[in-house]
Amino acid sequence: MFHRVSHLAVIAALAAGAAGNARAQTQDEDPVDLGTITLSALRYGADIARSGVSVSVVDRAELDKSADLRLADFLGTLPGVSVISQGGFGANTALRIRGFDGRHIAVYIDGIRIDDPSGVQVSTDFGALMTDDIARIEVLRGSQSALWGGSAVAGVINISTLSGAEPGLHQKVSVEGGSHNSARLAWGLTQKDDQLELALNASHFRTDGISAFDGGTEADGAEASRLSFSARYRVSDLVTLGGAAFWQKTRSDYDGYIDTDGDGYTDTFTDLPNEMRRQDLGLRLFAELETGNTLHVLGIGFSRNKRDMDDENGKSAFTGERLTLDWQATSTLSDQLTLSYGADFNREEAKTSAMPGGSGNTDTKGIWGQLAWSPREGFDVTAALRYDDHSAFGGFGTGRLSFAWAAAEGLTLRGAVARGFRAPSLDELYGDYPGLFFTGNPDLDPETSVSYELGADYAFGTGASLSFTAFRIEVEDRIAADPATFWSTLGNLAGSSVSKGVELAAKTRLSDALSLTLAYTYTDAHDPNGARLTAVPRHNLALALDAQISERVSARFTLSHLAGRRDRHVNSFAALDMPDVTLLDAAFSYRISDSIGATLRIENVTDEHWQSSHGYGTPGRTAWLGLQARF
Fold first, then answer.
1. Which of 208, 270, 579, 616 has a beta carbon 3.0–4.6 Å from 86's, enabling a disulfide?
2. What is this structure's pTM?
3. What are the structural domains of the chain?
């Protein structure tokens, strides 16, 4: 097991929402190698190989190598993750994990849950989220409701922003310009001493954009400004206080529908001067107390998502708010036993004219516990249970059981089974959008899920690694529109929607100057009637080649291939097959000095014409030239 103080330090990093920086270590203990640590799988620091579940961990260095500016585009290169976007930067962009969409994914930034309660479904729009202030990402795949509550049916994305990891005062600035009259400016400041760690990050991005309507002539521009802040103050050896906050303001243009046959209904997607303005705010405060072998963390969080739309249906406004209270305790009972337990409260409120009375809210109260047991060297078992009480749907229990077995030198076998739960959103229950052919249904039942996975990880003596996972997720009573018409009142689909497949990840060094990384996912996802789920590629491949061209020049080439895609026609909503696509991205880095560097990023090098979502355009070849400085 980990040394107890180091173990608690990593727990504190997660509980503070700084997953990825174990900053409370004492002077005489060894540093934690966070390259092998997951903070999301068990809600405390654990070796990935001993967690028993599928999790991808990405650090800042990996993000810097990529040609992707948007967070979603990078996440789409990870095993089990796919992306669908309705245009360029700022356009509505959603993720899927193992075939299930954003309503089944819980997303956190610095411990703040960011999915929007005022959406038709509680999910996260990744369209204007960039990687500027991100230090670390964990993507946890499979049903995780037992530890992370509702919405974590398909997985969890846990993001940590940059923080004061190095002693002293440090600043960095970067500027980039590129295609479509685009520009990006980012600045960051960090400070660390014996007691205080803080970070402040600011960024601004703007672009003239492309037409969201594929083939349109009117460009849909966008701009976004973002601030993020985190602080951690060690009051004593036993008490630490801290917090994190972010604010983002986004403006984006988008296209819409017009009535072409005179029946009074908008039915044809085309160029339109539509505009969305949104503000996103998040705040979390926490206190940590170490008592003997137990670390207690108490937190309070608040988030607000405000959207103002001006389109062919007129003007509309949406505000989603979330208040959270949480307590977590983790006790190292022995070298073989670790007990985690906690309680939380979550209030979600949606304000919109599309809802009766103009607003609605729900409360969820939960308690949970987890026991991690190592009965013998090389074998780990974890069991977690949770009980939630939802103000509209009553009580529900979830759980997860996982194991990891070091079966041979370098070989780990693992498996997990879990039960998940998702209550209908406020909009799914009560929303009313006549112009969009959408009506909520107050008689909806919650969705439930069962998730299974078996996997094997092998580390070769050469430093290469290979990982294989077979998965299956069954979602009972999945909420959807009529699958025959794809509009009108929502309902629960009778039976199970099933997604099954395999994930493959590999890394190897080809030479001193070349290394290769592979991520491949095969997904077979169907509704209870046997119809394929849309926006889920059967085959999703990402292949990255890293090259150290010279002492000062490095490069990454990323080849992505999507095949077996199914979508809905942008006008008729009838299901249809989408063409396969292969894309090549390239990123070059030149170290001018120890503190100054230059970058060139090229997305879609071969200028492929393709659609992520049917009827919507993509940017084509884009190039970015940038400078970075640290001081």
1. 616
2. 0.93
3. 4-630 (2.40.170.20)
